[in-house]
Amino acid sequence: MYKQSFGSKLFDVFNYVFLGLFALSTLLPFIYILAGSFTSPQEFISRKLVLFPHEISLEGYKYIFSTPILPKSLAVTVFITAAGTAVNLLFTCLMAYPLAHKELDGRRTIMLAVVFSMLFSGGMIPTFLVVKSLGLIDTYWALLLPGAINAFNLIVLKNFFQQLPEGLEEAAKMDGAGDLRVLWQIVVPLSLPAIATFSLFYAVNHWNSFFQAILYINDNQKWPIQVWLRQIVILSQGGLGDSETFDKNYIVPPAQIVKMAVIVISTVPIMCVYPFLQKHFAKGVMIGSIKG
Amino acid sequence: MAIRPHDSHTAAHAPVRIANGSAIGKRFIRNRWMYFMLLPGVLYFLVFKYIPMWGVLIAFQDYSPFGGFWNSPWVGAKHFLIFFGEPQFGMLLRNTLILAVYNLVFFFPLPIVIALMLNEIRKEAYKRLIQSLIYIPHFISWVVVVGIAYILFTTEGGIVNELLLALGGEKINFLLNAAWFRPMIVGEMIWKETGWGTILFLAALAGVDPQLYEAAKMDGAGRWRLMWHVTLPAIRSTIVILLILRLGHFLDLGFEQIFLMLNPMNREVGEVFDTYVYERGILQGNFSYSTAVHLFKSTVGILLVVGANYFAKKAGEEGIY
After folding, report:
1. What angle separates helix B142-153 from helix A6-37, to the nearest 10 degrees?
2. Which residues of B2-41 are buried (b: 16+ CB within 10 A; e: fewer)?
3. A 235-274 near B (Cβ less than 8 A)
4. Hey, are the CB atoms on B157 and A254 less than 8 Å from each other?
5. Which end of chain A lies in a sparser environment, N or C, as judged by fewer CB atoms within 10 Å?
6. In angstroms, what separates the C-alpha of A23 from chain B's closest C-alpha?
């Protein structure tokens, strides 16, 4: 044991404080925005900085939900997230399982092709042209298919499958199970932790998807929430809140409150899912980094 | 009769050849479900990864959607030459390089520093709390991050400017002023990704053999020596590999982030290769030209990875290949 010098103790204090401030800087913007979204217009204007509103007001939320635009967009986003993650899982698991079998002919070539695709890509324009020529522009498929398999996830899942005991598959086959059944009834249930990790990552990705929607979807009825978020918060182009639904004396809430409310509804789902993410990703990343 | 060597040679081979052919065929049939399972994935990579890869060839054509790939005329390096001659080329190069350097200098070291600091925390509970908090921004979208920046830094009621006024200063237009574009970009990147970036380094730090620390302490090493002689060397290879990868993606700046932060006022400092590709290609339909721009950028990226890997090996580190 070394004796802690004064300098060392000082460093400790500094360390704890600095990291605490750093973590706080991560949290404060969210708190500020969450609080602000629930503040009444009057209080917001008079108090300037609200970290905890004196009284909870739903003015901001009433306004942003006064038209069906945002609820529709949220529904679209939920759909894309669910369907997209399902597509991801289907494609990734189906492909990873055969690739985990070393004796399969052609495995090496396919693996090389997968790895190569991680290093070199055609880029935005050629991919756009492919999607266009498939007739997928302005359809939800354009948001579900182009990202169906993440090569990195595929490799990690393949490695995970490779680690499962061989005897299981042999035993199942001796009982007459075909390859598909082995995958579906034995391998997948055993791989649930890994699959759960991927699902969460894929799902968060879908929820956050913005640029693909800008690129491929022109119909604003199909815009996911992030696109509307940009319209309202960054471009300050509302299109929200039909003032005719309110009476003549209605004053639209301050733009800041409206923006904050929109941010909250776009982020709350991620925050709810975050504790589950936390449980899994530390493990998942470790698996990935050890193998990678 | 004497056995003629030629006959036995042929006789020995013939059955083997036939057996090979049917062996592969037999294996294929036995594994047909496996190949069936591979089909969706393989099709995916073919259609969405490999066809676009070939698609970069339109950079050498005067591609028109009406003619398609097969009927558009080939023009060789025409678009590249036009690109190099354009006035924007210098601006794009300058903007991209400066942002890339800022990123490397101001952002890259931070996860390492924070990881080292976290590693020095004795109270596990505090360490876990801090980690939980700093990972959060990684999971929210860039739209939300830029949105938060817009709310905080706007001149119309944004808290940062209100604070400046309260302290007796003047409002600063962080969002529109070209001079603030780069600091804002780097600042946002630091806020969003530093926390998550510590994971790899923390994993490397956790892998350090405790016996090394014990031995050093027994030789009388104090805290700083421990860090300098034991901790840092342990994560050196992780740092180098990440640096190589970072350099390989040197010109890949966060497209979404920049796209969201761009506006007519800061385009001069903000427009980079990728946003230029989007504007000329998607918005203006110059498919061939924009693909040429992208191809140029990718090629430089590949050269950078190869170069960085080469120098890393020369310096005695393991490269990534």
Report:
1. 90
2. eeeeeeeeeeeeeeeeeeeeeeeeeeeeebebbbebbebb
3. 254-256, 259-260, 262-263, 266-267, 270-271, 274
4. yes
5. N
6. 5
Domains and CATH numbers, chain A: 6-59 (no CATH), 68-240 (1.10.3720.10)
Q: Closest Cα to residue A66, out of A254, A288, A245, A215? A: A245
* Lowest-pLDDT range of A22-31, B190-199, B248-257: B248-257
HEC assignment per residue over chain A: CCCCCHHHHHHHHHHHHHHHHHHHHHHHHHHHHHHHHCCCHHHHHHHCCCCCCCCCCCHHHHHHCCCCHHHHHHHHHHHHHHHHHHHHHHHHHHHHHHHCCCCCCCHHHHHHHHHHHHHCCCCHHHHHHHHHHCCCCCCCHHHHCCCCCCHHHHHHHHHHHHHCCHHHHHHHHHCCCCHHHHHHHHHHHHCHHHHHHHHHHHHHHHHCCCHHHHHHCCCHHHCCHHHHHHHHHHCCCCCCCCHHHCCCCCCCCCHHHHHHHHHHHHHHHHHHHHHHHHHHHHHHHHHHHHHC
CB-CB under 8 Å, B52 with A121: yes
Q: Which chain B residue lies closest to A216 (C-alpha atoms)?
A: B282
The model's pLDDT over A26-38, given as tens digits with 9 standing for 90+, comes to 999 999 999 999 9
Q: Do A123 and B121 touch (CB under 8 A)?
A: no
- The pTM is what? 0.87
What is the ipTM metric for this complex?
0.89
pLDDT tens-digit map of B199-243: 888 888 888 888 888 888 888 877 777 788 888 888 888 888 788
Put simply, the answer to whether B51 touches A180 (Cβ < 8 Å) is: no
- In the predicted structure, residue B94 carries a pLDDT above the cut 80: yes
Give B11→chain A minimum CA distance, Å: 28
Q: Which domains does chain B have, with CATH numbers?
A: 80-139+185-314 (1.10.3720.10)
In eight-state DSSP terms, residue B1 is: -
